[in-house]
Structures are given as structure tokens and as C-alpha cells.
Write a structure and sequence with these properties.
Layout (H helix, E strand, L loop, with lengths): L2 H7 L5 E3 L4 E3 L3 E13 L5 E3 L4 E13 L1 E12 L3 E5 L2 E9 L2 E4 L3 E3 L12 E3 L2 E4 L3 E4 L5 E3 L4 E4 L3 E4 L7 E3 L4 E4 L3 E4 L4 E3 L2 E11 L5 E3 L2 E11 L6 E5 L2 E4 L3 E3 L2 E5 L1 E2 L2 E2 L3 E4 L3 E3 L6 E4 L2 E4 L4
Parallel strand pairs: 1-3, 2-4, 3-5, 4-6, 5-6, 5-7, 6-8, 7-9, 8-10, 8-11, 9-12, 10-13, 11-14, 12-15, 13-16, 14-17, 15-18, 16-19, 17-20, 18-21, 19-21, 20-22, 21-23, 22-24, 23-25, 23-26, 24-27, 25-30, 26-31, 27-32, 30-33
Antiparallel strand pairs: 28-29
Length: 296
């Protein structure tokens, strides 16, 4: 039977197991309200050659495991009332989440994808939770969190080789929590325009800052490393930033009330952390508001 027929017939709690390699131009639609089920790809390759979305999840709770799915475009779109969990596997393609997406492990890339209007590896409009996995790409952001969306990146490795886009982007009105991950960008590793809390992790960039903040951010832990030759700051703050604990290596913090031709709020409040650099000014307050009550 086809995968679509198996999905149409599946009942709550059942597992669909793929038994052979599949190459198809036909998209699969999952519309199973109040049904939770698993698709076990069984390490078989699933190649989608169509122009749309390989898996369109309109309703239902789906767990996907042992995947080996590739497409030139979008692997999965999750609608507002649907939930998807990916436990492991290999995935080459884009993800569009309007519902709930949880990733616990796996390898995710856009290496062989075409340049669509959407080029982010994962674009999130609602709820995204990542607990582990390897994420890489060169076309755009690996993670983009949109206005009104909530993203919790609690583990995993993120490496973006785009010269123009940060690895992780939190847009204005978005809420994001980072903890226990490793993020590296050729541009910035993390750029925040919304609300962000960093509770740990390692962040590094090779061209620009490891972290750029334009919104409001609370840094409770984390290591920020600068290996760039194009800038002197590991962290650029143009918004509101509170630092209670941090490890800063080989690069300072620029708190810029003016940056380029723009004026900014630039409020920096430091109550703890370790700040070490042999090449640059540790804290550079340029027409911003600076308060330091702790740290070394």
C-alpha cells in the first residue's frame, strides 16, 4: 500500500513502518484530528521530487523516527492544530512550523535544496522545541522565530556558513530561550530583535559578533567567543541587556547608543560574569547606559 493510504487508515497509537526506499513527486497529507501515531521510516530513503511540501500535516500528532528524507524544497509544513515530534534520522530540506514541532535528535541540512522564497532551515510561527541534533546550512538562517512565536533551543549543534544571515534569528515579537547548545555563524551566531533568555551554551562567529541584540535579552550563562578579524566585539548591544553570568573570550562588549547612522536605547546591566580579552576593550560604552555591579 502507499504511504498516503496507510496514513488514511492508521488508528490512534499505531505505527506505520516503511519497508522500501521511496522516490515520489506526490505530496503526503496528514489530516488525522485527535489521532496520535508514529511513522517509522526504518532507515529507508524517502526522496520527494515534487515542487510542494513532502509532508503536509493539517491535523494530528505525528512522531517521525529513523528518517532518511530528502527534497529540493520543503520537507514538512505543520498547520496550527497539528503536532510533530522528530526523534532521529537524516533530513535534507526546509521545515515550516505553524503548530508544534519538537526535535530530540537527528541531522538537518539544506545542502542540496533549491533557493525558494523560504530559505530558512526551520521557520517557526508558533511553538518550537529543540533538545538535540545537528543543524547546518548556507542559504539563510538555520532557525528563524517569527512574531508571536515561542522557541526553546535546549541542545544541539548549529553551524551556518552564510555570509549574510545569522545562524539563529529571533524576530521582533518572538520569544526565545537558549540553553546547552553550540551555535556558530559566519555572520553572527545569534541575532535578537525580540525577547530572549540565554541560560547557557557556546556561541562563536567568524565574520561578525557572536551575539547581536536589538531587543531585550537576559544572559544568565553562556560562553561567547570571537574569532573574527572584522570586528572587535564578541557582543553588540543596541537594545536592553542584563548579564548575571557569562564567560567572554577574545572579544569585548560594545554597548552602542549610536551605531552607524542609527540611535539606539543601548542599556547594559552587568551583575556577574568572567570577561577576558587580550586584543580588545572589554566593555566599550558608546553613548549608552551602563551599570556594573559585579563580575571580573
Amino acid at each position: 500500500t502507499s504511504l498516503q493510504n496507510a496514513i488514511d487508515a492508521v488508528k490512534d497509537g499505531e505505527t506505520i513502518t516503511i519497508l522500501r526506499n521511496i522516490s515520489t513527486a506526490k505530496a503526503v497529507t496528514i489530516d488525522k484530528k485527535a489521532v496520535s501515531f508514529t511513522i517509522d521510516c526504518n532507515d529507508k530513503s524517502y526522496s520527494y521530487t515534487g515542487d510542494g511540501t513532502a509532508l503536509l500535516i493539517k491535523a494530528g500528532n505525528i512522531t517521525l523516527k529513523n528518517g532518511n528524507i530528502s527534497t529540493k524544497g520543503r520537507i514538512m509544513e505543520i498547520k496550527a492544530s497539528a503536532k510533530a515530534i522528530i526523534t532521529n534520522g537524516s533530513y535534507n530540506g526546509y521545515f515550516l512550523n505553524r503548530g508544534s514541532l519538537t526535535i530530540t535528535d537527528g541531522t538537518f541540512t539544506t545542502k542540496d535544496c533549491a533557493s525558494l522564497s523560504m530559505k530558512e532551515l526551520i521557520r517557526n510561527y508558533k511553538t518550537l522545541t529543540i533538545k538535540g541534533g545537528s543543524f547546518s546550512g548556507s542559504k539563510d538562517n538555520l532557525i528563524e522565530n517569527r512574531k508571536g512565536a515561542k522557541a526553546s533551543l535546549l541542545g544541539g549543534s548549529f553551524k551556518c556558513t552564510s555570509s549574510s544571515y545569522p545562524a539563529i534569528l529571533n524576530q521582533s515579537g518572538g520569544t526565545m530561550t537558549l540553553k546547552g547548545l553550540t551555535a556558530q555563524g559566519k555572520n553572527t551566531a545569534v541575532t535578537n530583535f525580540g525577547h530572549m533568555t540565554i541560560k547557557g551554551g557556546s556561541y562563536k562567529a567568524t565574520k561578525k559578533q557572536a551575539l547581536k541584540n536589538v531587543g531585550d535579552i537576559n544572559i544568565q550563562a553562556g560562553t561567547f567567543d570571537l574569532s573574527s578579524t572584522n570586528t572587535s566585539e564578541a557582543i553588540l548591544n543596541l537594545g536592553q541587556m542584563i548579564i548575571t553570568k557569562i564567560s567572554l573570550k577574545d572579544g569585548g562588549i560594545l554597548n552602542a547608543g549610536y551605531y552607524g547612522d542609527d540611535s539606539n536605547e543601548a542599556i547594559l546591566d552587568i551583575s556577574g560574569g568572567s570577561f577576558t580579552t587580550s586584543k580588545h576593550i572589554v566593555i566599550d560604552n558608546y553613548y549608552g547606559t551602563l551599570k556594573i555591579s559585579g563580575g571580573k
